[in-house]
Fold each of these.
Amino acid sequence: MKRRSAFRVAAPEGLDPTERWEARGACRTEENRAQADNWYAPSSNREAFNAAMRVCAGCPVRAECLDAALKRREAWGIWGGLTESQRRGILRKRQASAEQQAA
Ligand code: SF4
């Protein structure tokens, strides 16, 4: 499966891309864009992994980013300050909760 970049999210038709939340992401600065691989670093690469996590922790659109990643079931990388494993955990809990309510 091909990895998608956190920095190439297309704006929906009819919307000014500069008004999208993605444009306000802390990872969009020139300095952080140069370190884009950090968002896909294995957790064993602590320096890169922690650098991406620190940027996400201070991001003004972290909630929007996480919500979007959960909606599209993003399989790779750090989004909204969470790893793919952490996001899968949220999705499993949501699924279990939905099944419990439906029962
Ligand atoms: S939460 Fe992280 S990945 Fe998402 S826009 Fe902000 S800095 Fe980028």
Note: The CA atoms of residues 21 and 30 lie 17 Å apart.
Amino acid sequence: MATLTISAADEKRVKALGFLSNKGTDNFSGRIITVNGKITAAQQKCIAEAAEKFGNGIVTFTTRLTIEVQGIPYDKIEDFRQFIAKEGLETGGTGSLVRPVVSCKGTTCQYGLLDSFALSEEIHERFYKGYHSVKLPHKFKIAVGGCPNNCVKPDLNDLGIIGQMIPNFDEDECNGCKKCSVAAACPMKAAKMVDGILEIDKSICNNCGRCVGKCHFDALEDGTPGFKIYIGGRWGKKTAHGRALSKIFTDKEEALNVIEKAILLFREQGKTGERFAATIERLGFENVEAQLLADDLLERKQQILDAELHMTGGATC
Ligand code: SF4
Ligand code: SF4
Ligand code: SF4
């Protein structure tokens, strides 16, 4: 085995920049942030070139939509960073911070209820970049899903946001057809005929919007777009399913503010080393939800950011 010459302090320093030691070697994998898994052809070419020029020619994809170039020698790290910066790319994505955002392809997907690439880019700018210097008790992962099909598993993230289409059913326009095309279109079996009239069981309906426009008699012409937010999911050594906030948000700014409040709450009330799921369990979901729906956390934003907290967080990767 090669003699290792990089000190633990240097290894830690470059890890914070997104360079992870390739075990048993003096080389590193450079983790490139793709914002939301969408990169241009020019960026792809640049990464391929950088892999040949500075690394071992191998490019790998991580489960959270970042790209790692393997085999970069320690003394080539700065050159590598400068090279990819030409195409607006940067490394990072480690530490007890807001982590790179994961998004599904809701923008182009036939089921997409929101522009997931645009929303995840906005979240990236505001919270991945905007909170990059803000230390948290542990890592904080955010995922954006275009619809309740949950392809990127938003409910297994510290915070997940999902596109919604709340069906606007007008009972007065319902003729009680023998065969209801709305009920037939509902994959959740939430829309059913009850006593000769259509009924949507709100406890089953997941606001997928598949029924919108399916009634031939104008009883369900449109829906209201919205956002559902899950908090406290995690996947790893320990697992937890996130729980949805009771409110469906129809205003994007309000939904983004809830994300900001969740990060501030985690910073202020989380114990160093615990994931958001554990913070929520300790404080109680109802307490956390009430805080996320109120204004107090944002009003105290500067005070929360200025506090000396979590100088060493719990994230190990
Ligand atoms: S979650 Fe929905 S919108 Fe996103 S990729 Fe899956 S089916 Fe498409
Ligand atoms: S919702 Fe439309 S299709 Fe379904 S029973 Fe009523 S009128 Fe008929
Ligand atoms: S929004 Fe989806 S789950 Fe709800 S009633 Fe319509 S089709 Fe069914």
Note: The longest helix spans residues 252-269.
